């Protein structure tokens, strides 16, 4: 009897193992001679350039951690809970890049997360989003990439430990979390909404940063766009759980994504800055508008704007709090000296380029991470709104100063509970940043 049970279990294991191999194992696709630039249609190359910008290819495939790499040559370090993964070289170099990849091999990578040699790719490459792109868009991106200057560049080794580094096991991840297939338009919505959904869910993979992930590194489908930590920042919620007092409307989303600043919410900084200025800025305005329409629908903006006017009035009333008369609160004096010159608004709306902190995402999130990042880093000329900068306070404010400032703003500009361990968290954020040069004295 025991022998029969063992035999049955063994048989089940063999069948299950064979089934898993059938899903997880993929054959190599034969290499091709690197195609010449002249073999691609110029219109396809140009469409691919725009699509590659909208998919942020260069952002994740160009090294920047202390050493500037060649565009698209890979080796960008992505810190994950499973170790550091370095992006691939996607220039047409025949040895270290994708120069010998056919369109079929490239399409398989985009749709199914499988390399030309048959190895499963880690989902740090967002093939779970790119799978929704059309064949034509994938072919155009391929045409663009294969006509870039080839760069011979080896990437560093990943630090993913055993057994997570076994590529075959990624087949199980895909079985659970990959839903391949081209985006299908939702007949309940118009063409503009569907275009925005196609871009946000596919090419531009917004959820890759703005959706929290489970223990296996997959996006939580029941918490789509609820916000998540990314690159030592917090990508805020893009849905109705966003805590800011004034609704993210279509126009606010559009202004932010197109110009790097939402008048009633703030500026694009940190990881979002290249998304706006290096990616979406290359796309047609109609596409950016379509994404804004889709996101505004996700956060139910149309049904949530009723109280915006009153909340805006309350926020503007708090903008100059503690700035008139004797200042007995030392934290208020700190704010007045460091921040008020730019962030105190006296009108009914914030002055363009001077976000009102009572409206800003950074003060309403569950942690002060983004507030600390902006104060310590500043906002450079290539970030946020064109022509507007914010100085770094890295050297002029201590961690204790940052903690006092954060506590003051949280209690006077929001209706939320106070943050905790503020000085410790300030030190933690500071430790992730290189010290900027000290300005020369005169």
Automatic annotation (TrEMBL):
Annotated heme c 2 binding sites: 206, 209-210
Single GO MF annotation: oxidoreductase activity, acting on CH-OH group of donors
Pfam families to which the protein is assigned, alphabetical: Cytochrom_C (PF00034)
Keywords (A to Z) from UniProt: Cell membrane, Heme, Iron, Membrane, Metal-binding, Repeat, Signal
CC cofactor: heme c
Cofactor note: Binds 3 heme c groups covalently per subunit.
Tagged with keyword DNA damage: no
Compartment(s) where it occurs, according to its Swiss-Prot or TrEMBL record: Cell membrane
Residues that coordinate or bind heme c 1: 57, 60-61
GO CC terms of this entry: plasma membrane
InterPro entries: Cyt_c-like_dom, Cyt_c-like_dom_sf, Cytochrome_c-type_DH, Membr-bd_ADH_cyt_c
Residues that, per the record, bind heme c 3: 339, 342-343
Protein name per its UniProtKB record: Cytochrome c
